[in-house]
Amino acid sequence: MNNCLAHRGPDAAGFYFDGICGLAHRRLSILDLSDKANQPMHSHDGRYVMIYNGEVYNYEEIAHSLKEPLLSPGSHWRTHSDSEVILEAFSRKGMDFLSQLNGMFAIAIFDTHTQDLYLFRDRMGIKPLYYFWNGKDFAFSSELKALGCLSSIPKTLNQLAIHRFLQLGYIPAPHTIYQHIYKMPAASWMKVSAQGMEKGSYWGVSANISQESFSYEPEALKRLDGLLRSAVKYQLISDVPVGIFLSGGIDSSTIAAYAAQVSTTAVNTFSIGFHLDTSKAANSAQNRYNEAHYARDVAGMLGTNHHEFMVSSKESQDLVEKITEVYDEPYADSSAVPTMIVSQLARKHVKVTLSGDGGDELFLGYGMYQWAKRLNNPLLKLFRGPLSAVLGSMDRPPFQKAENMFRYTDSKSIPQHIFTHEQGFFHQDELDCLLTPDVRNTFVHLFYELDLSLNRRLSAPEQQALFDLRYYLPDDLLVKVDRATMLYGLEARVPLLDHRLVEFAVNLSPELKIKNGQRKYLLKKALYQYLPPKLFDRPKQGFAIPLSEWLRTDLKYLLEVYLAENVIRKAGVIEYVAVEALVKRFLRGEHHLYNRIWLLIVLHQFLSKNNLSL
Hints:
Rossmann fold, single chain
């Protein structure tokens, strides 16, 4: 199992086993590079043994709260690492220590006296934690592939997970593609003992929503500025070189701008761009997806030590088939490819990188939040039937998308419905025709409902963002960054998801998130204190590849290999007739179907490579 995860920690390996509990750790040395900071680590009194993945940024303050500051005269600390401080905090305070931690973490602590095992995951789900439990035996790991090393764990497909994947493009917690293997939810704890398993949560976004939102702009901007400054300063703490992924968009530029303000040394920034295929330069998909020049402009204004890597389409395409190997289960976010590329290249210069994930969810940056507002409009609700019929008569993808948006069946499921249609995935009516009877009869249509028990009534865009904070962010975006970076032994930190910033943002009035049609209004105001607005006067772009074009050209072979009749029928999940019809429509010009095609390719690629079927 440990060897499976060598890429996550290439610097050291360690083991503990007492006949009841076995612990293994791979170390990526970031703080206190000495061997004394290796894991498994024993508490000062010898009672507890810990393995831990992540960083706790306020470890020096925690040490001070234990009445024993780090590096103080006569200190009993053996290291200058956050690991030792975390373990001592648990040893002295028990599970109350969790409220003190500011960071990203998956922690396992074994009590050698009681033979109880405790597991903890960070508030936002930045660091992964998977586990197997059958009522008797328990195993856990940072990636599914390590659990796959255990022959005693059956690799039985979770049919409900397949259904969710086809709707969302990822498998939401607590599910994985396998039965009896689960994702430990964000902000949760678990205790495993001879008596069985106990589990619970210690924090939640919903629980931190106050009765009143904050709407006074001058004070809100001052607070946001202070929180950004503090979060970025914390996350620059390291004993190895640190860099920043810089796309040139609002979120990553905000991180870079604040890093330039608080860092005592030149900031390293990294971006990638595509080499243009000159034979197609006039209508180049690569050019539409190339943001390198925007990042270059931002880096120039900030005076960072900027690294720009130009890659070819071939280099990107070569990684496409690696996605299922890296992510261990069906995962359809194709932006994993450029994320892997920039991670591999950045690792040649730094060991830690900061990412801008979280800005859209916290400050209402996605276009689908406008759809949430539309679908909540009483007038549009009243006439959505006729509207849907009119839009359906117009034979163009944007109108068809709008038609589908108005065709929700249950108002409680609107966030899930909007996400599916915004991404171009399979909606419920399509799945009823697509899935084989055995799979179709096992799923529950609704897995998410609007939360009506909050301290205050949220606007429709805020409810949609709450869905993303619970599912899309931890189970897609943060998974993408963690696996892509750790594949190359690179640690990714996420300053915008400092829990203090999250608690501030979810209580910020939506009028300060979208103002005069400008999304992420207050976050932009904070950024524009350090960079001119003209640098960002352009439509929002994602960190993406030209997947639709590639599936019709260089990657067309993926359709021929993984959507072949024998592959589909062997898997037994999807009706081949439905796949055949969908592929014909796509190749005849309905290019908006590319994400549905991609979902089916990824699913059957995973099943084929792992020799799995129903």
